[in-house]
Specification:
This protein is an alpha+beta fold. The protein has a domain at 31-81. The protein is built from two helices and two strands, in the order βαβα. Helix 1 links the parallel strand 1 (25-30) and strand 2 (51-56).
Length: 81
């Protein structure tokens, strides 16, 4: 999200879209991703505590297209970690 282009705002300044904690934002990152920098995603997740960060061992940039990973994501969203 934040790795490309020049934004008119800082992602760190984003406000929690769920101020009453009725939901959360999930961010999945493969630890073998060669397109999106892992340290950048970790930094954003650390600065915005309302983001639930999921780092996936052995997964690359297109992990979501794997049937197994799609099921993991859906289960996490429906039932939690």
């Amino acid at each position: 999200m934040v790795g490309f282009g020049n934004w008119e705002f800082s992602p760190i300044d984003l406000e929690n879209p769920f101020p009453n904690y009725e939901g959360s934002v999930h961010l999945w990152q493969g630890d073998d991703d060669r397109i999106v920098a892992i340290p950048l995603q970790r930094f954003i997740a650390k600065k915005l505590p309302w983001i639930q960060y999921h780092e996936l061992p052995g997964a690359g940039h297109f992990f979501a297209y794997s049937n197994e990973m799609s099921q993991v994501i859906i289960k996490t969203l429906l039932f939690g970690d």
